Amino acid sequence: MSQPHVSEKEQLNKGLKGRAHEALTDANLQKALSVIGKGFVNKRAMALEGCPQFKALSDRAVAIKRHTLTHLEHYLEQFEQALNAQGGQLHFASTPGQARDIITQICKEQNAKSIAKGKTMVGEEINLTHHLEDEGFECVETDLGEYLIQLRNEIPSHIIAPAVHLTREEIRDDFKTAHKSLPRDRELETPQDFVKEARGILREKFINADVGITGANLLIAETGSTTLVTNEGNGDLCSSLPNTHIVISSFEKLVPTFEDASTILRLLARSATGQAISTYTSFITGAKRPDDLTGPNNFHVVLLDNGRSQMLGSDFEDMLRCIRCGACLNHCPVYQNIGGHAYGSVYPGPMGAVLSPQFMGEKSQDLPFASSFCGRCNEVCPMQIPLTKLMRQWRQKATNKAGLVANLPMHLWASLAKRPRLYNWAMAIGLPMVSWVTKQKTITNIIPALAAWQKHRSLPNIEKKSFQVQYQTDKKNKE
Amino acid sequence: MTNSSKTQFLKDISTAVKGRDGGLIKAEITPQDWAKQTSVTREKSRSPSANKTSNIEKLTKILEGQSATIYHLESASKVPSQIANCAKNWAKRTQNSNDPALDRGEETDPIEIAYGDNSTLKELIKGNEAMLNNDTIKLVSWPTQPLLSEGDALISLTIADAAASETGTLFMLSSNENPTPLNFLSACHIVLLPSDKICETYEEAYHSSLSHSAKNNIPRTINMISGPSRTADIEQALTLGAHGPMELNVLIYDEA
Known about the structure:
Strand order of the largest sheet of chain A: 1-10-7-4-2-3
CATH superfamily of the largest domain in chain A: NagB/RpiA/CoA transferase-like
Structural class of chain B: alpha/beta
Oligomer: heterodimer
Distance between the termini of chain A: 82 Å
Largest sheet of chain A: 6 strands, parallel
Shape of chain B: globular
CATH architecture of the largest domain in chain B: 3-Layer(aba) Sandwich
Helix content of chain A: 55-70%
Number of domains of chain A: 2
Number of helices of chain B: 7
Number of domains of chain B: 2
Low-confidence stretches of chain B: none
Mean pLDDT of chain B: 87
Structural class of chain A: alpha/beta
Largest interface: A-B, 98 and 81 residues
Shape of chain A: globular
Number of helices of chain A: 24
Order of helices and strands of chain B: HHHHEHEHEEEEEEHEEEE
Low-confidence stretches of chain A: 1-6
Radius of gyration of chain B: 22 Å
CATH superfamily of the largest domain in chain B: NagB/RpiA/CoA transferase-like
CATH topology of the largest domain in chain B: Rossmann fold
CATH class of the largest domain in chain A: Alpha Beta
Helix content of chain B: 25-40%
CATH topology of the largest domain in chain A: Rossmann fold
Strand content of chain A: 5-15%
Mean pLDDT of chain A: 92
Radius of gyration of chain A: 26 Å
């Protein structure tokens, strides 16, 4: 499973437009994406119907995150003390490189050979699995979706359903190639068949793992607990069987108390999968207690910054409320059509378009342009993040950087609009011409931009006189 | 880790925070006030209103909707026989399965149920030990007897410390008597739930379970469990038994 990134780099070079075009013409991907509407969108709508207090919970959750982010230093300190008191250790990593080094170091100190890993988006952000493999460890993804994409050496295409882009046929081929010890002609037809096979293969990995690595959905300052939400139970096996457990997370997951965590948990699954709660939510606090029969003797929490602190105190601080539910992806017409990989970032969709330029810099500068600004993402966000407003700010930054030539049309327009007499004069001459041209189909079909536009809709009829002129005339007639 | 990385990390945060609008910060209450407000709501959740019947009904309905099976027992004395029934039914259902994960070895071997040497459980089966220790059924203590793969015990038995009816959620606190892996490694999970431990909200369940736990100390792991293990990673089709139990049986009974 080595030689990663090659295809990733190629993908990045294609740019957003190139990748989106490929996605739109990929029949397999389009088939896989077609289930998102029926699945996540409808289920979320039903879950909210069954939870009349959802809006009140959402308001409260926003207040909780605002409060925690305002007093971040206090709550970080409290979290560390409580964690230390239960035999856990906190590590601070400003960069992805530091986070990878800390984790590698811990694994080496434990003489680890094999690592069982649960799904973590921060882990994806720092490319942890590939790094640990390059360091010589066997590192197995145990979330089924993550396992499927690990077999293909891909990045997730969705933050809660990493393999949503795959069809059964593709998974069957991958399983037959990877699980060589099983009979070649075995039946792999129903989802149950696939799940059974993966369960059998991965069970062995859990039991033999020296280190378990998971993410955290929330960190509770009062008790020093990390919160783990899953449906499969894989994270709980990673956190309870190996002798060492490492949690990789980031500081914006902090909340003050269990009560605050409960409020956010009531929003998370409803927004994500449409469940009232995920099957398993676990609060993990430190290392095993002295009289426990099982549990890790070593417990580490690694907190990654990677540009998050720069968002504090800016308009982008709102984005630090994100709980990674994926509702904005599921409801985004752009995501629904091009899928996650076209974004070329581990965080796709509207939330990815806001986060990725912060984390990845120039490489993902074009992501905020992958939006029609329809605003569905703002409406469905349980943490009330103004996603389109933040995407617009990234666009502005990118445009400012693009220089004078790119901004020339806008400058011309602005100088015209600032001079009313010149503006009216230009309109009096220009509008009749534009009006005539737009009616000449033979001409409009040759102009490339207009021809493309007309493939899907007809051009509006442009009036010969501007609104202002019509208004003045109308007013005079009435007098 | 080294102190320098911590210093840098915190410095980045405090530098950024200084850029904040001072008015906004003043509008936000202090952590001390936040803790005070929390302690008020916490007191309320420590003395919940007693809606026992409606909580049991709600928990049952929601958990069944989440693919669990619920048994209401007339009294605690029925617990051992119901455990035996669940185990036998499971063995019967999976008898002709061609799934190697469900192969418990020879047909004639007793059906093994793994548990964590739990004193409450011992108390419950007192006098009825034979029901769970005979030629067909055997209680085995974990991890002496593994619970891992082919030929091992496939059924686990644990006791819930509380439950929240709001989403049909069981609270399991880890201890030497209730080891966490028993909640996840088995194919069939049997949970005992005393009816007076059923609350309405997460907060009520959390605080009531902690108040009973040893030394009033937070355990290493608290699992909130709301059904059997599941995944939708294959074409978004809901499939049970991803890594954890395929089946969750909850036995609700009144403590004598």
